[in-house]
Write a structure and sequence with these properties.
alpha/beta; 2 domains; seven-stranded parallel sheet; binds adenosine monophosphate; RNA helicase activity; nucleic acid binding; Helicase_ATP-bd; nucleotide-binding; DEAD_box_RNA_helicase
């Protein structure tokens, strides 16, 4: 199905052709016809499926058909996304799509200067892409008004909820007078997400691309059981031995990220950092170096790397298993994109075995274990047998992170406890 056959204007099709887009992806095929007609959309689609174009092209086309002069501090379309990187990426994509039409695009996120954002907002913006936190600051300062908002998009809504943006979303909604055409995109579903969708959407068209909580078919999953203190060596060993050229490594803590990068550099592997303590400009530079191939490895924390589109990424490594099984799906979403083969490699220490069990349940796949000679964990079998006989393990096996019974409040509590335990551990170690 071509973009021209969908009735997009020649100027939009020309820009899409320059982006290399010829045919609609499955999520675009499903969402675009409904969105073009003004319907609300609830879409379950993972990253890498082409969802940005799925929600933004119908908005752009409707704006082209109904041009309006920009009015001071007014916004026609608001797109909310959880992280600055994702906001930046969405805005960048939309700028490409609108290259030949008169539509203004602005991005607003924390960590960048308020004043330059303020100037853009004051002039009026057609499409505003924003993180909820910074947007509220601008709302409170009166830099922006949603009185004439026509389109509203929530991208990676599940992640916004996980990051505690629910009250920010409610505050933003209070500033919106009429019901704009609303589209909600999420990689995973949960009871809290469904409740939000019910609140925000009117008779939405439901779109599901791939089974919920699944990973792309083009990803080969592998687990290396390894002791925690051997992970750094194992990473260098695998990168060198297998000659991996572009590797995104996920860790759970900034400290780990710093240590891993230091170690890789000592081994002569060019690696860059992407975590929340780094300034926006440094993160951008790291990403550029990684994308261009100047750096072979990027070591990132979950939030910082959320939603990043790094095309054709061949290898994603979970140096630490994520706290939530759903995050495995998000992380792995960066590889195996657009039909290319990807490799998802996870280092699993004895303490992380339970998370692995949950991940396997969620993705409904048993992940292949590979032992690398010299890196076998010490007495793993004995420990597993002991763990499996514990009542807590049995109880946990009967749950999944996404089950209806398990509220997200519970999940967050578990998450908070895990962080607390880890930070206690870190403090003790430091002390
Ligand atoms: P997204 O899921 O929006 O992050 O998109 C993933 C990648 O697919 C991005 O690099 C897009 O530029 C690309 N993409 C989106 N739609 C198409 C299309 N119709 N044809 C080719 N590439 C696309």
């Amino acid at each position: 199905m071509s973009f021209l056959s969908q009735g997009f204007s020649a100027d939009i099709v020309r820009a899409l052709t320059e982006c290399g887009y010829e045919k609609l992806t499955p999520v675009q095929q499903q969402a675009i016809p409904h969105a073009r007609r003004g319907a609300d959309i609830l879409a379950h689609a993972q990253t890498g499926t082409g969802k940005t174009a799925a929600f933004s092209l119908p908005i752009i086309q409707q704006m082209v058909e109904n041009p309006q002069s920009r009015r001071r501090s007014q916004v026609r379309a608001l797109i909310l996304a959880p992280t600055r990187e994702l906001v930046d990426q969405i805005a960048h994509n939309i700028e490409n799509y609108t290259k030949y039409v008169d539509i203004s695009v602005a991005a607003v996120f924390g960590g960048a200067k308020m004043s330059s954002q303020e100037r853009k907002l004051n002039a009026g913006v057609d499409v505003l892409v924003a993180t909820p936190g910074r947007l509220i600051e601008h709302l409170e300062l009166g830099n922006i008004s949603f009185a004439s908002l026509e389109f509203l998009v929530f991208d990676e809504a599940d992640r916004m909820l996980d990051m505690g943006f629910i009250s920010a979303i409610r505050t933003i909604m209070n500033g919106i007078a009429q019901h704009p055409q609303t589209m909600l995109f999420s990689a995973t579903s949960s009871p809290q997400m469904n409740a939000l969708a019910q609140d925000l959407l009117r008779k939405p068209k439901r779109i599901i691309v791939n089974a919920e909580n699944s990973t792309a078919d083009t990803v080969a999953h592998v687990v290396y059981p390894v002791d925690e203190d051997r992970k750094r060596e194992l990473l260098s060993e695998l990168i060198g031995r297998k000659n991996w050229q572009q590797v995104l490594v996920f860790v759970n803590y900034k400290e780990t990220a710093n240590e891993v990068v230091k170690e890789l550099k000592l081994d002569g592997i060019n690696a860059v950092l992407c975590h929340g303590d780094k300034a926006q400009s440094a993160r951008r530079r790291a990403l550029d170096e990684f994308k261009s191939g100047k750096a072979r490895v990027m070591v990132a924390t979950e939030v910082a790397a959320r939603g990043l589109d790094i095309q054709g990424l061949p290898h994603v490594v979970n140096y630490d298993m994520p706290f939530l099984a759903e995050d495995y799906v998000h992380r792995i979403g960066r590889t195996g994109r657009a039909g290319q083969q990807g490799h998802a490699v996870s280092f699993v220490s004895r303490e992380e075995e339970l998370t692995l069990v949950q991940v396997e349940k969620l993705i409904q796949q048993r992940i292949k274990r590979v032992q690398l000679a010299g890196y076998e964990p010490a007495s793993r079998d004995a420990l597993l047998t002991k763990m499996q006989s514990k009542p807590a393990y049995k109880d946990r096996q009967s749950r999944t992170n996404n089950s209806d019974e398990q509220s997200s409040a519970e999940r967050r509590l578990r998450f908070a406890r895990a962080i607390k335990n880890k930070s206690n551990k870190t403090t003790r170690l430091k002390g």
